[in-house]
What does this fold into?
Amino acid sequence: MLQWTDDSGDALDEGLALFFPGPNSYTGEDVVELQGHGSPVLLRALLERLYQLGCRPAEPGEFTRRAVENGNIELSQAEAVAACIDAATVRAGKQAMRQLQGAFGQRIEELMHRLTGLVAHIEASLDFPEEEIPALFFEHLSEQMQDSIISPISALLSTAPLGERLFDGATVAIIGAPNVGKSSLLNALAGRDRAIVSNIPGTTRDVLEIDFEVHGIPVRLADTAGLRLSEDIIEQEGVRRAEAAAEQADAIIFVADATRPDTWQTNRDANMFLMNKADLVDSGFPASFTPVSIKQGQGLDKISDSLAEYLGDMNLADDGLLVTRERHRTILVDVVSHLQRGVGMLHSEEQLELTAMEWRTAWSLLGGILGVGDIEHILDRVFSEFCIGK
It folds into this structure.
């Protein structure tokens, strides 16, 4: 146990000092960690004393950036550190942890290794221009590129909608005529009474939002005012806000009342049409509506499953690895574009150099995911998103 004092020798606090020698520390450098009693006042005094002795606050993401620059982790693992911090659901946290452990980086390294082999075939052919290249060579190389690189990258890209939604979340608006069960649906999906439910039409005047999750996807659910013509100025504003919420939402749930045919009509595009109180009628409502009974709890599981499917949830093949960051998705789209352009040129010896150039560019782009090469501008962008320190 150590005692820390101010500049006059008076005790500030006492605690532990842990030394982590490089290169086995997190950053790869010598690191000392001080553990005090946790009082904000005492910690602030201790920090001020450290600043007097020449220390300074860490920049956003500085510890993790040093770990990357010292080769302790690669860049995609560093981004996973931020993902672990930002994860709002257990599913998102597990995906972030897999990437922190290097699963995504290993997949990219594997693709780069395969691409290196195919480029080497072209380079070898260019080194011996006097040798005639058979047509089967071009066909085989094209098939190898498609099967071993382009298809796996395309499969990864197909996971991006779900991967990004796990961390960015989604907004879902509930719309429909007054008194059809929109607020009851919000309460049922949230698992608690958040919205006022009443038989009086027009109870909801503003947009009411709650956060919950569907299959591990963070969702912000918005209950809106009933859509109808009204002379009430306040209700008119509520309808205007309901329309605006629907415009900005990632998905829209339209709710109607099976006992009120006047609520069935809609000219609005929606991702899900629900017929509430379907247990009170035999049939007769449009086939596009899913029958539910919010009060009885009938069909709610189907609502969650359908909503998750629309938001990108899928039966994950292979090992369930996801593309979770826009930066990675953008790079992979560019990689596929360069690879396919190279394949398009792969039909004659005269264009082999162009094919090699396209594929080398794709290799460099993949390296940007891992932090390979001159990527100072990429580091600046990535670590600007970190919280202070880390």
